[in-house]
Amino acid sequence: MTDLPPEDEQVLLVVHKHWASLLREAALTLIPGFIILGILFLFSGLPLTLADTSVHAIIVLLIPFCFLTLWTILAIQWTNYYLDMFVVTDRRIFYTTQINFTERTTAQWHLHDVNHVQVHFSGLFESFFKYGSLVIEGREEDTSAKIEGVPDPEYVAAVILKQGDQYGQLKETARKQRELLHFFSHEVKGHLAKSKAAFASIVEGDYGPLPSPLDSMAHAALDDSQKGVDTVMSMLDNSDSASGAMHFDKKLFDLSTTTRRVADEFRERVQKKGLTFLLSIDNSCVVEGDEQKFEQHVLRNLLENALRYTPAGHIEVTLERSASGIRLSVADTGIGISEKDMGKLFTEGGHGEHSKETNTESTGYGLFVAKQVVEGTGGRIWASSSGPSAGSNFFVEFPSASI
Q: What is the model's pTM?
């Protein structure tokens, strides 16, 4: 796996075989071929007896056959020379080789998997024309490969090794940045959690009744602290998912119970906004996954989005069990999703055209992390909408877990 998307990959070198390698292969084919043809012409020109007539006929037939064989071999050699290609990017090495007229293969190595590159010159011919072979050795056993006919192989090997060192340094820098992000995020999370606990105690009346203005301020501060904790947790899980290091505590849990509990928490907020809240939840929808991550980054995120982007109408949560699996849907009658914005959903930092106007706190990572959580536990997530002002429907589907 690489740390950057394929569209950011840059080509450093495109190398074709040296023309002298074709000349050498052709010479090794033509010399014995012409010797054989010379012998056949010699025998075909000898005086014949009646007994030699059949032998002469065979020799005459062998001559065009040898010509055809030589032409075929030379054509294959030319095809291999013309189409064989060695490509070095800033992250990978590709080697495409033509086996015959209709078949070709491509081998590839990630630069971080390359342990060593050796250069070989076979004799004075290759040294004189400055071409040779590269032997690429991987970090694992039995992963070496030999590539022949490479022009200026020492330069090519130097580019590969240099880029491999740079790639390793970049990976190490990225690792340290992730560690630093985790350190600061955990520190900030700890302070926000303490503030949240303090404001929760005030709101719950542990310090006595509060006057109306102070009570409103304490509730707002509690909400802001919770949003801060959620944002930090989203950042942590996003950094894990982007590096492919997100960990899941997979176990069996009843999604019906989780969905009802979270829906009951949202019910007051939905009704306070003047929306109708519809629920249809089947019992015993048991799935296998990380319940905490699913609740935080999928279920709560979908409900928050539906609440924020639905000015009027209703929000409907449906959880149903079927023979093929378990499907959760969160539908709304909100601002909808345009065809252009639909392609940005579930992408890293993806924002809709007017999403920041409706939700100024949006980071653009909520659905991206939700997708990593769902797919990391064996499910799939997608959305549908008829367009702007037509509402939207988000679906999450899991296979049923065997109890």
A: 0.48
